[in-house]
Please model this.
Amino acid sequence: MQKWIIYFFGSALCLIGLSTAAQSVAKPMKVAVFAPVYLDAAFTGSVYKLGNNNLPKNILPGLDFYNGICLAIDSLNTEQNELTVLFYDTKNESQPLSEIIRSADMQDISLVIASFNSRNEIQLLADFAKEKKVPLVSMTYPNDGNITNNPFFTLVNPTLKTHIEGIYKYLQRNHPTETIHYFKKSGAAEDMISNQFADLNKRTPAMPLKIKQTDLSDSIQSADLFASMDSSSINIVLCGSLHEGFGVNLVKTITANKSYKTIIIGMPTWDAIKDMGKDAELIYTTPYNYSRSDKTGQYIETKYRTKYAGRPSDMVHKGFESLYHFGKLLIQYKNDLIYHLSDKSFKLFNEFDFQPVRSKTNGSTDYLENKKIYFVRKLNGQIKSIN
Model:
């Protein structure tokens, strides 16, 4: 039998899986999980200090990720898998990351899973993973953190460049001869995005897209927006800005004019805007495709409601998937895990396609990136994957 014990060391939580059957044969493989839980802000010692009705928003993503890890531990435990899992709060003031990675518990780690919310934390753990030659699986933004020459740093979230390449290929497949009405605002990020689309259009071996770009003000005037659009046909609109406010205003302005039929293609940031475009047909990309109606989704929903009396967020699903999927692969491949990260044997929700991103100077691997993205259609309030 296998049991799980939860230890609290200051602001760091450690979940340690012990297998009595394995103790006399071999030590279980060890996984370290890092997430921003901000326990120092919520507890004085073991006393919760924020009151019964006060849970700061900055705590919720890391806490949900941790809860997902706990649910995955329950599942792994039921299946009698042998893993040791350590969980650390990256916002622990009494034990910073620089000390954690030097601790005795971290010296025989075989896999690191992280939910980052700060670029400063990425470099420390990436350097540690490279030194120990173990995969560091980064589940959340920010993306590459300017990491270079590190084949053990693994991005589950595709970079913006990968999303843009995916959108371009989608448009080529589905709207190869139609005019693409490309709208953007002023800004360095917007210029970078439009330059990438222009570069893809120059380099494509197929027929280039017919992209008609219009620069709009932040307030978006209807006259500027509809000047180039056709009321007698379906217009393909592409938003060229990550700015959520601009995207929301663009969709609102378009849908307010019922004379124009449109399909609006947006950026990956639209996945977080839940109430946008109820009367529009929206298409956008996302690195994650979580179903809440299949067997695994229903299992997580039921277990979470039973344990925490609430509805699991996507961060719960990310925590669950990260430990269960990559933990199972670790058990199977052990120290060769880095070569099998794209293995689909233990797929839950998402497929992963990890590819090396090469240095432009010497061709070495800067990091591994998941190149698999999903396209989502949002129509009449219904969200559906169209991959």
